[in-house]
Every structure is written in structure tokens, then in C-alpha cells.
Amino acid sequence: MVKINIDGLDLEVRDGISILEAARQAHIKIPTLCYEEGLSVYGGCRLCVVEIEGEALLKPACATEVNDGMVIKTHSPKVRDVRRTLFELIVASHNIDCQLNCLTCSRAGSCELREIAEDIGVSNIRLATYDKGYRDDRSSYSIVREPNKCITCGRCIRKCEEVQEVGIFTTANRGPATVVTTFKEKGMGNVECTNCGQCIHACPTGALHEVYHYEKVWEVLHDRDKYVVVQTAPAVRVALSEAFGLKPGTIFTGQMVAGLRRLGFDRVFDTNFTADLTIMEEGTELIERLNNNGELPMFTSCSPGWIKYIEHFYPEFIDNLSTCKSPQQMFGAIAKSYYADKSNIPRDKIVVVSVMPCTAKKFEARRPEMEGDVDYVLTTRELARMIKEAGIDITNLNAEEHDKLMGTSSGAADIFGATGGVMEAALRTAYELVTGEKLGQLDFKNVRGEAGIKEAEVTLNGTQLKVAVAHGLGNVRKLMELIKSGKEYHFVELMACPGGCIGGGGQPIPTSEDIRRKRIEALYKIDKNKKLRKSHENPYIKKLYQEFLDKHGSHKAHELLHTHYIN
Ligand code: HC0
User: Fold this and answer.
1) Of 271, 381, 502, which is best to mutate to test ligand 1, by the most ligand atoms within 8 angstroms of its C-beta?
2) Where are the beta strands (DSSP E) in 344-425?
3) Closest of 510, 505, 565, 516 to residue 193, by C-alpha
């Protein structure tokens, strides 16, 4: 431990930590733009400069370690003055329109530049803004990049490289023309981008955002010839409330459903319903592979960022992917067949909209292998925007339930949104169907929690089933290397985003580690409080098989619910 003094406060802090960390522990806020917890320190923006007694030069708090006896001033007149000038320089290299079009920017409510301007008391930008003149990158189905809004803080580069270990971004040019770009400026849609959207969470400005579908959704909602059904992903219900100022981890299912009805959707259904369906189909597939010497381990196929990742980096394992479409796509296929027929609505009148925590789901919906199942995909953020635009006071709405037929789900489906959740849901069902016995303990704690890679073994009729779980593509790479080197598993769950879907690239900003943890806790709470906690006990899933699909893995089920990746 070392003794330091920050702004007149005597503190004892751990040796080796940065001045920034020490200040945060003492609840002193030092502005930063290029710093992000969990990423390497870059020290490029210099906004966190502080004055250290006895030193002539100001030092960046993020990149300077505390020393015994250090006396630090974080907000002295000199520091404040330098910080304002540095800030003006950063803004001058930002979008020329930023000061004029701030109100219409995608990050109008959550722009870190705006927040810092307020924190450091900037009331006037004295410098002329430099026009970089770059064109927007609209090559991706999921993400838009607006380089003129980029302040080259490098957070997206480090997030993609250090957390996801994909590394599609780099910098080009020098001086004020410096820009973050992709290999040979090919565009995000033409490089190894997985569409996970973690870069959007890292970006402090509006330089990265999702491809918007909400204007299209407004159009179909006002088209009397269309019958618009919406599905809600597991992870949205525990995050949407954050966009309306409620605490992370608030369970908001009922208000979300009520808000969607007020927006004018004809039916409000649940992706959780087809998450239960996925378990039936995926479980059947696993048992078949186990019994017939099929390709093992079998990999889950519901995270579209992971699918794109395996296509780019481990194509030799594509046959290990479950052939099941994701719950999002299964929902679209069932809504446009079973539901259309049952409710006497012409199939071509039905428009399927998804609300997803995920930017890669926009890409998934456009994949040629399953195009047409889902028409539009809104992120959690886009849904919040529509609710605000419609003037719906959602936090004061009474809770409502999803519509029947495709809206009832088990607790196993809710936990799909957390890392390990798909595995746990599958184990609950596989155990009971294979052994014919009731599970005493439904919680498979070994596959829960924050560890990047988790393993468990379950005995099914005398056979040891070895399973593993990885979340965040950096961890996925580690697990794939283990498998490549011969480590044996039967079934593996892989999710592109840290924490699973609750940490998806379409979730409210910020999505920090602490916020992810609270969303996960909320999902497990929903599961615990449900009577129906196993996918195979969902009465509407049983009805779907009886009335339409016949048995698990039937010809019809294969036609509608399974696919092969052709990339
Ligand atoms: Fe997920 Fe899903 S759980 S990928 O994480 O399987 O996005 O929430 O909707 O499709 O159900 C995301 C979340 C889903 C799908 C489900 C799966």
C-alpha cells in the first residue's frame, strides 16, 4: 500500500494502481475519452491530465502509477485550463456538423463528448472545425461507421482486438486526417467483422451505430394491408428499462409488452417461445449425433456473431454446428406458416419484426440461407427510441402479458440471454427425456457465472456428457484452440458477446461489466419465479408439434427450422 494525497484527501491505496483508479476509489471524477475499463491503456486523449507536486509537466492519470507520498491535484486552474484546450482540439477534429447537428445524432442522449463538455465547463469552441471529408461506411447489414464523427480514441480498435480478438480496425493517415478504418478501407461488410457490435459500446461518440430498421417498422405499422407481429428476445426484457432511467437489472417484461401494443403491433409474441422449440430440436439432434457417430462436439448455432466467426476463422468446424436455426429465425418461419394458417391470415400479409439485444441479428435476418423468415430487426436501443417518439410513458404502464400461441415460454428460455443459459436449458430437457427421470435440482451452477470458459459433466443413462461454454469471442477462440488440440466435448455453447446476449451490441449504452451482471441476475430471477421451467413442458410447444410439426426432428421441422451454412 502507498500513501497519497489527492485534492487534499489523504488516502492509502494499493501499490501499482493508476492515479485514475485511485481517484475513482475516492469518488473523484477525472474526465477520460480514450480510457475504458478492461482495455489496455492508450493515454492518447490526454483529457485526464493531473498536476503532481514537484513535477513540471502534467501527467495523464490513466497512464501514471501512484507513488508513495504523491500529492496530486486533479482540478487545479492549470489542469482545467489545459483540459479545455485539449477538449477543443478533439472537438475540432470531430464531425464538422457536430456542433450544428448534435440534436439529430444517434448518440444525442448518450454522447460522451457532450457529457465531458458539461463536466469541464466548456462554453465555447474557439477553433475552426476540420472537415475530414470521409464517406460513411454503409457496407455492413448490421453496423454503420461515420468516420467524420470519430475522435480516434482507439477504443473500438482495442475492444475488437483485445476482447473479441478479431481485430478488423486499424488507423490510417496522419495528423488531423487520422482515421479509424478497415483493411484497405474495404468497409465493415467486406472484412472479417462478426457484426457483434461491441465496437458500438466502446465508441464515445456517434461514429459507430447499428443499421436502423425503425423507420421501416414505422412504415409497416401504418400500413393497413400488413399484419405486423413482433417477437422479443430474452435479454431485452432486463435491459430496456435502462433507456428510461431505471436501474440495471429491472425486470421490465410486462411494460415492454404493453409498450409494444401501444406502438400498434398486431400481436406481441416472444422469441422465448421458439427458444423452447430450439431446445426440442437441438436436443433431438444431439441425441441423434451421439447415437449415430455424428460430428461431435456439437456447437450451438443461435448466436449469429459466433456463426460468422466460425465461418471466417474455423471453417473446418462448420459441420459441428447444430443445423438448428436460431430462435429468432425459427420464430419467423413458424409465424409465417403455423400462425398464419391457424389465424387465417394470408402468409404474405404477415410482417415479422424482432426486438433483439444484438446487431448481428440484422445480418442473420438477411442471410440467403433463411431470408424471408424475419423482415426487420430492431435493437433494444431502437425500440426505446420508437417508444419515446410515440410519447409512451412506458415506466407508468401496467404490465401486460405476451399473446398466446407463440408467447408462452419456460424459465429455461429466459436464461438463454445469459452465458451458459442455452446449455442449462438443454441439460434440463436432455436429462429428463433421456433418463425418463425428473430432475431434483434444476440449476446447473457449473455452467453459470462470469468465467470465460466453463465446463461440466452430466451423467445420462450411464454416459458421461461433457459440455463446455464460452462467451466473448476472445474466450471462444481459446476454447476452439483447445478443441483443435484434441480436448473432447460432446456439446458446446458459444456466444459472441461478453456475458451472452445481455451484453449484446444493441443493448442500451453503457453496457459495463457491472451492468451485465445485474441483467444476468434478473434473468435467473425470472426463471426461478416461473412455474414452467423446462422447455419440454411448455404446453404450446407440445401443441405446435401435435397440430403442425408432428414429432421432433420431423421432415416438416427440418424444412422450417433447420439450415446449413453455405458460406
Ligand atoms: Fe439471444 Fe437467442 S438468446 S441469440 O442470445 O438462442 O440476440 O436475448 O434472442 O435467436 O432466444 C440474442 C438474446 C436471442 C436467438 C434466443 C438464442
Assistant:
1) 271
2) 350-356, 376-379
3) 505
- How far, in Å, CA of 401 to CA of 414, rounded? 15
What is the maximal distance between C-alpha atoms in the chain? 80
Q: Give the per-residue pLDDT at 320.
A: 98
Cβ–Cβ < 8 Å for 19, 41: no
Element (DSSP H or E) covering residue 4: strand 2-6
Quickly list H helices, 184-339: 198-202, 214-221, 253-263, 271-291, 304-313, 327-334
Q: Which residue has a Cα nearest atom 11 of ligand 1?
A: 275
Query: pTM of the predicted model, to two decimals?
Result: 0.97
- Cβ neighbors of 500 (< 8 A, separation 6 or more) are 235, 417, 418, 419, 420, 421, 471, 520
Q: In which residue are the cell numbers 459441420 written?
A: 319
Instruction: Work out whether strand 49-52 and strand 463-471 pair parallel, antiparallel, or are unpaired.
Output: unpaired
The separation between CA 557 and the C-alpha centre of its own chain, rounded to angstroms, equals: 29
Cell numbers at 7, concatenated: 485534492
The answer on pLDDT for 94 being more than 90 is no
DSSP 8-class letter at 104? G
Cβ–Cβ < 8 Å for 498, 515: no
- Report ipTM for this prediction: 0.92
* Cα 567 to ligand 1 centre (Å): 22
3-state secondary structure 304-328: HHHHHHHHHHCHHHHHHECCECCHH
Question: What are the pLDDT digits (tens) for 109-135?
Answer: 889 988 999 999 988 888 777 777 899
| pLDDT tens, residue by residue, 137-183 | 999 999 999 998 899 999 999 999 999 999 999 999 988 788 999 99
Shortest CA distance to 308 belongs to which of 199, 193, 140? 193
Give the count of beta carbons closer than 10 Å to the beta carbon of residue 348: 11
Handedness of CA 438, 440, 441, 447 (dihedral sign): negative
Ligand 1 in contact with 303 (CB < 6 A)?
Answer: yes
Alpha-carbon gap, residue 299 to 315, rounded angstroms: 13
- Domains of the chain (ranges; CATH) run 2-75 (3.10.20.740), 76-210 (3.30.70.20), 215-561 (3.40.50.1780)
Q: Which of 60, 30, 57 is nearest to 45 (CA)?
A: 60
Task: Indicate if ligand 1 lies below 6 Å from the C-beta of 500.
Answer: yes
Angstrom distance (rounded) from CA 1 to CA 317:
49
